[in-house]
Amino acid sequence: MRDIGEFKEFDFEGEENLRSIAAADKFNHWMYSQIQPHCKGKILEIGSGIGNISCFFVDNKHDIDLSDIRDQYRSYLSKRFFSQQCFDIDIVGENFNTIHAKKFGTYDAIFALNVVEHIKDDQMALLNMVKLLKPGGNIVILVPAYQHLYNGFDRALEHFRRYTKSTLLTIFPANVQLVKAWYFNFAGIFGWFLVGTLLRKKVIPESNMRVYNVLTPLFKLVDKVVFNSMGLSVIAVYQKK
Q1: Which residue, among 33, 61, 223, 88, has the nearest Cα to 145 in the 3D structure?
Q2: Is this model's pTM higher than 0.90 or not?
Q3: Residue 43 burial class via C-beta count within 10 angstroms: exposed 0-12, middle 13-18, buried 19 and up
Q4: Which CATH superfamily is 12-240 part of?
Q5: Least crowded by CB within 10 Å, which of 27, 95, 201, 237?
């Protein structure tokens, strides 16, 4: 598992999962729709991967910079989104303050989707994100929910932990305030448990994501029925004071 300054140079399992998820355009747009209202002005995405969510921001003409710690993803992103800036940002790098000082206080919004759970010192990651924000700017994070769902998928993807709304409150620095927190993708809990715990898969099958994509309109309705009180993921929006 990754510690500060330590990560796999090439992320085989991660890229395979990202490519499977890329097949689920309706699901990805659903995720985008959850975070987009909180991302205005100059935006930075931490951990853009292969751009499954970035593409919606780019297509809708948002002023967004992309980033990733791995060459494999930055190379892909630079080719796919050639008009966007794409930075090498290690959000917990020991020289973060020196390397990225010019970016401090420059962004109106920062989002990180399925990133923070990969980082051992999640508090440092969020503290450094705040440094990049303007006063009044938003941080939006999406992370996996409920530690009891931790399974082979989590291990293969090098997740340190899963979260709840309550545990998210404990990791943010004092100079930010909670705007909103909610659970996302209730139906995904059952698929995650079946495939990752019972079947012990380490990669999400693309065929599963294609089926999930077709059913996304139904799953969106389910989230409304349960009032976003439970879900496979938890989303939180914080504002810098």
Answers
A1: 223
A2: yes
A3: buried
A4: Vaccinia Virus protein VP39 (3.40.50.150)
A5: 95
